[in-house]
Amino acid sequence: MAFYVTDEEPERALLVGVDLPGSPWNLDSSMEELARLTETAGAVVVDRTTQKLDKPNPRTFVGSGKAQEIADTCLALAIDVVIFDDELTPSQQSNLEHMVSKNIKIIDRTALILDIFALHATSKEGRLQVSLAQNEYLYPRLRGMWAHLASNRMGGGVGSRFGEGESQLEVDRRIIRNRITSIKRELKQVSARRDVQRKSRMESGVFKVALAGYTNAGKSSLMNALTGAEVLSYDKLFATLDSKSHKMELPDGREVTLTDTVGFIQKLPTKLIESFRSTLDEIKYADLVLHVADTSSPEMHDQIKTVNEILSQIVDSEIPRIQVYNKIDLLSEEERENLTLSDKDAVLISAQEGEGLDNLLARISEEAANHGSYMTVRIPYDRGDLVSVAHERCTLIEESYDDTGTVMRLHVSEPLKNTFARFSVE
Predict the structure, then answer these.
(1) Is residue 96 within a helix (H) or strand (E), and if so which, with residue range?
(2) Is 112 within 8 Å of 231 (Cβ atoms)?
């Protein structure tokens, strides 16, 4: 007897967007991004619908007529999930759920992103951060969720007035409150260990470079190209969620660390930024930030603006940044020239093809050279450990030997100045 493995049918999704006055996002591009997020989560987009409003409807977010149209479309097209491009209030979500079949889910962009994050979180810290954000999102929405469960379970007649659903609601609220407290406590412990590791890296004097950018801009591909690491690199939104650091050697011999972080996205919920604060601190404590942009995207300038807005919440404005335009292999010569003229300080690269990486490394070397000061030291021959530190963590300008030790002209980062200060001959 033969057995055949069949793939599970993907959920059928209907996307809903609202064009509001003063919105910083173009509705078409936002809906296109929502479609990519939906596909990343494993669903298939069957249809889209939009509406122009002066302000959201407090009951159903969209107008009452549009809400009924959504319910009818769900029946006609066998929709499994309706995804709104903006965040719904718990009451709006509950009201919409009552308008459609009980088997159809109503979610918003925040819930969709959380679902993708849950798929891609691999480290313990990443899973805890996702779980925290999910529970904080779920807590105010419990009432709507329990309303239909209570009615289904109790029915009418005798005993239905005891309010079992309400008591169950309170039980669940207490469970989630306790869960949030527990996750925060565990995250605090994990973050403390990360802080120790970060402090060790800072005291080591190693120059720290962080990659930042819009999701799918090619940061992981750049990490692989520069370090030879095998970081996950897919053409998907949020393919990389947990930050990863690797060592990299610059042309002048200096060793630096390069850290890849979670990609940003428009309308990124504030709670997600808060939940991933410890991961994003890898950018905050960097000596240099490489802002990677996807030149092949028609929304590149809006994406750059979004990343800069989020970085302003995290990174000290004094930390140097280099604008890196990636995927130039997909541009024409004229487009490359226009890009160079519009931003002369930027670096144009193709991480996939290796083009422009030498220029980028040269720029990183320049920034690293500006970070610290020059020293001439004489290190005794019995302190070979310090000679190794000088070779690995400093830029060696000149080296010679005399009767008492090794004389070195070095460029030293601030954290290492005290290490070599007692051997200075200046």
Answers:
(1) helix 90-99
(2) no
Q: CA gyration radius for the chain?
A: 27
Distance CA 41, CA 85 (A): 15
Nearest to 402, CA basis, from 420, 375, 370, 425: 425
State the amino acid at position 368 in one-letter form.
A
Strand ranges across the sheet with 12-19: 44-52, 12-19, 81-84, 105-108
For residue 309, the tally of other CB atoms under 10 A from its CB is 13
Q: How many residues does the chain have?
A: 426
CA distance 43 to 41: 6
Strands of the sheet containing 321-326, edge to edge, are 244-249, 255-260, 207-213, 288-294, 321-326, 347-348
What pLDDT score was predicted for residue 153? 42
Q: What are φ and ψ of residue 324, in 5° steps?
A: -115, 115
The mean pLDDT value of the chain amounts to: 83
Tokens of 349: 């690269």
Please say whether the beta carbons of 242 and 190 come within 8 A. no
Q: How confident is the model at residue 163 (pLDDT cuts 50, 70, 90)?
A: very low
Q: What is the pLDDT of residue 38?
A: 93
